[in-house]
Design goal:
The protein is of the alpha+beta class and 409 residues long. The protein is built from twelve helices and 17 strands. The strands form three sheets. It has a six-stranded antiparallel beta sheet. A hairpin with a 2-residue loop joins strand 13 and strand 14. Helix 1 runs parallel beside helix 4 and helix 6 runs parallel beside helix 7.
Length: 409
Amino acid sequence: MDRTAKVERALRAAAPHELLDVVDAAMRRHYDAVGVQLRMADYGVRSLQLVEPVLLTTDPVPIHGSPQGKAFVAPDPVVTRDRSADTVTAHVAVSVRGDRVGVLSVTVPESAAAPALLPELTQLSEALGHEIMVAERDTDLYVLARRAARLTLAAEMQWQLLPGRSCRRPEFALGAHLEPAYAIFGDNFDWSTSADHLTVAVTNGMGEGIDAALLSNLAVNAMRNARRAGLGLADQAFLADQAVYAQYRGAAYVSMLLMRFELESGRVEVVEAGSPRVWRMREGKVEALEFDAQLPLGMFEDTPFVAEHFQVDPGDRLLFASDGVYDTASQGGERYGEHTLGRSLNANRLLPAAQVPRAILRELGDYRGVTPLDDDALVLCLDWYGREYGGPAGDAQEQGVRRRNNFAQ
């Protein structure tokens, strides 16, 4: 059994709260490591928090401006050398099916830094990511390590409802983010993939605090229940509408944008019911996609919903945004969604989909200036590659970026 297999086997046998201890011991035994650290990205994706016996004892490192942060966003591991100690430290992103959750840093003597080290650490980091995902069913350790501050109860509910920050397959890549990360309440996103389809939902429950979080939780779980029952898109919206109306009798409602993508053809079915909107970047041109406006979920009893269709082509980038993004005004009174959002999409065209939402939300903060955010802000970015490339997700992503870049030049 090779050494990577031995470490992976030890990980699978470890207690949920002991994953880092097992990795540390295994890396020292099989790789002659002299130091092992695991850092988790905080909810705002601004810092990396050390997983340690007493959390927050060690200062976090920023994602922007640190070797660990560079490894978190870069496609490849980052290596630093300490010539005085004659050691090499490899910083490797920890991910779960493309969703980056943290960084594993392993320090070894210079003499042990063989060419096989980085590929093996990349493989082990992916295994660690999967084990962390499973372990979170039984321990709070890794969830707590993500907190740079205390979450509001509404934010706690919303983060537990989310599927992750990003997802990647050969046909597409997507990423999403919410602000304010530690005090969100009504905005939410959801996605699900199968052999033939990708379903994406963006929702915005009215109100504030716990009321908005409870409303969004009801709507999202009602749509999941209908989807898992095998119902079509319009029926998913209809059953979620019934669930919300039955509970609130029209006193509260949920805005929603629901899409289902055929992975083979790129044909998209869509139901728009309320405020979330979508923009498409194609051949260097950004345009808002307009659909028939339908009533939000739960406004009236037995509201019928009708699905529409459109087509995505390889190289297309779709950006979903809540009204907390496109309705945000500058100090001069111009709405962000009128012109600035298109410029931002073009400016960030070379970033992978997983990084675009955070980049746009940072720019939104600069655009808003000193004015505080008075609503949730949600951004979801979807890059469509299709099946015509026939290669792995990385190859498809490179060609998609090339298409966008060629048209923008």
